[in-house]
Amino acid sequence: MATRKRGSGYPPSPPQVWNHRKEDRWKMNDREKDDEQVGRILTRREVCALLSGAAGAGIVGSGNLASSDMKPLPGCLARPEQTEGPYYLDTRLNRSDIRSDPADGSIVEGIPLELEFHVSRLTPQGCLPLSGAEVDVWHCDALGIYSGVHDPHFNTSGKKFLRGYQVTDDTGTARFTTIYPGWYPGRTVHMHFKIRTNSGARKRSEFTSQLYFDDAITDQICAQSPYAGNGRRSMRNRDDFIFRTGGDQLLLAPVRKGDGYAAVFEIALQ
């Protein structure tokens, strides 16, 4: 696996230029910038309108909202769509354990993370399990390195570690075994995911967003090997401009499991 180039003062501070068109936002180069949020966060009124069969489109997750003509649902907080970032690759790797690199079988080092997606579809009758949806996951390793990338600081071209997708089963569940992601300059710790569904003849829908972690847990993780080899992380959730556009609704709540963690993420698609 590629390693970061080390030297005096690495990693360098990302070049930053103030963008006067967008208040409180930095314009960075491709590595530090994952672009900006696409889509928008639904309001409570809009979600209730969806539940009652009104026109509109959106993604909903967990909460406790209800419409006038149906029982309260266990899951209806809006989930914001966010950018896929510069390092998405459609690898078509159908696998649950994404820690290995199929090129040589090597396993990425890091603290194990078992991640479960519970995907539902929103209907007038409520949130029902959505089977047959493709859930695609990708993220960086413990040192902030993505596979399949030719970057100024590393070259992992041809590698496919920490990438893969699963198809949801009859209960709407997709399971992954991966590692807790590391950090890199310009971003807080995060993971990317994409959900593809067939919504009709010749029509395919796609939802893309990111997952985040509590800073307190991340601080504990980053103090351990191999994460500590990347130095002190430079950005927390509150400082990440992408997190500030709905990241609090995309936070995972990992719990200890064996020598690692496990987390569940619920999301419902209209």
What does this structure look like?
The chain has 270 residues and is mostly beta strands. It has a domain at 80-264: Sandwich (Protocatechuate 3,4-Dioxygenase, subunit A), CATH 2.60.130.10. The chain has helices at 44-51, 215-222; strands at residues 17-18, 26-27, 59-60, 112-123, 126-129, 134-138, 150-151, 154-155, 163-167, 173-179, 190-200, 203-212, 255-257, 260-269. The strands form four sheets. Strands 3, 4, 5, 10, 13 and 14 form a six-stranded mixed β-sheet that branches. Strands 9-6-11-12 form a four-stranded antiparallel β-sheet, with no helix packed on it. The longest helix is centred in the N-terminal third of the chain and has 8 residues, at 44-51. The protein is globular. Residues 3-73 have low confidence and may be disordered.
Query: What class do helices, strands and sheet pairing give?
Result: mainly beta
- The helix tally amounts to 2
Between the first and last Cα atoms, what is the distance in angstroms? 40 Å
Q: How helix-rich are the residues, as a percent range?
A: under 10%
CATH architecture assignment name of the domain at 80-264: Sandwich
Number of strands: 14
Residues in β-strands, percent:
25-35%
Q: Name the overall outline.
A: globular
| CATH level-1 class of the domain at 80-264 | Mainly Beta
Task: Write down the Rg.
Answer: 19 Å
Q: Please outline the major beta sheet.
A: 6 strands, mixed
Order of helices and strands: EEHEEEEEEEEEEHEE
CATH-assigned homologous superfamily of the domain at 80-264? Aromatic compound dioxygenase
Q: Could you tell me the CATH topology label of the domain at 80-264.
A: Protocatechuate 3,4-Dioxygenase, subunit A
Residue-averaged pLDDT, rounded? Answer: 78
Uncertain runs with pLDDT below 50, 5 residues or more? 3-73
